[in-house]
Input
Amino acid sequence: MKNYRIELLLNWLATTSESLALMRLGKQSAERELISEINWNLLKIYLSAAVPEN
Output
């Protein structure tokens, strides 16, 4: 019975750590996408201000 509990615990820890790693990667990806979008918007604003309108 003790071995079963240990295996169950180890299995849970393995799947939980994988899930947490995937969630962390997803969050980092979303943060990078947000930063990229902010940088692109700032570049568009900068370029539109740098080009004089006729």
